[in-house]
Amino acid sequence: MNIIVSAGGTGGHINPAIALINEFKKQEKDLNVLYIGTHNRMEKNIVPKLGIKYMPLEIYGFSKTQIIRDFKDLFLIRKAINKCNKTIDEFKPDVVIGAGGYVTMPVIYSAKKKKIPTVILEQNSIPGKTNKALSKNCDLVCTSYENSNKYFSKAKKCVCTGNPVDLKFDGIKKESLGFHKNKKLLLIVSGSLGSETLNNFFISLLSKINEDDNYEVLYITGKSYYDEFINNKTFSKNIKILPFLDNMSSLFGDVDLIISRAGASTLAEIMNANLPSIIIPSPYVTGNHQYYNALDLVQRGLAKMYEEKDLNVQTIYNDINNLLTNDSMEYKTLKKNLSNLNKVKSSEIIYNEIRKIIKWMSMEMFMKILI
Length: 371
Hints:
This protein is α/β, with parallel strands linked by helices. It contains twelve helices and 13 strands.
């Protein structure tokens, strides 16, 4: 079986793509995978390290301010479509899957024109522009939230499958990072690309945490912000600062509380790990979709949420200390609600749905030949 998978830009798109590829590897003995991503973003480093064949496209998202670059991008899109046309002819995929990001546009467009089965994964409660545009006449759209299905009325088929995650708790252990086995661990992360706003806030918060607080803290700044964050600053000995952590979710089994943005993949991993959280949705994303992602968890009693405009150092500090106190009823309630979740095997559901699409389209083509 040959599959093309395309996703790019952030871990929120890349991680589900990789989780789904791993499911295909489990299900298909003879599997050939081609991953199509950008030439300059994080997937270009992550995917080849996993032994997956990678093809880069030079393409950029449209901007409201960089008009000259937008004109250039129109040319690059046409060039990318031509490259995808040639690649599809040579690779002969049985299905083409887009897991999010503007890089998927020429890939899915080319596959649709060549009548290859096309599948889109939508991680967020409010879909992005690319997926909404590509979904028209798409063979299958897989959503993470039931309320997202209404945005894909023109797709041939839309199924709420959940968001694929591939959690492995046999990876990173907190002791290997220098933390104590018997102390609680707070993980703070501001998204796969980092956040200047949150970094500025967390400088004040981490300055307040001290060794009298009976827990330890791992703060992930994002690669772009690490040097500036630690420059001429001293924090308590129970705090460790890192720029980035590969396969971070494999540490979730050793984490007691996480403070995080509300990227759909991160939230899916948090729920699958039964990990209580304080969520700070990014207000800088299209359609404010992170807020609605987080709101879904809050309404089900699975997390706490603060909007960025409401952040207060003392309030968050008090919350952390309350939740990490041994007898915290709020923490126990969050943990219980997370444990009671009906966790679907999203990757397996999506694989089975794709198999149905391929089988149905093969039968349809066969009937046309007979007629």
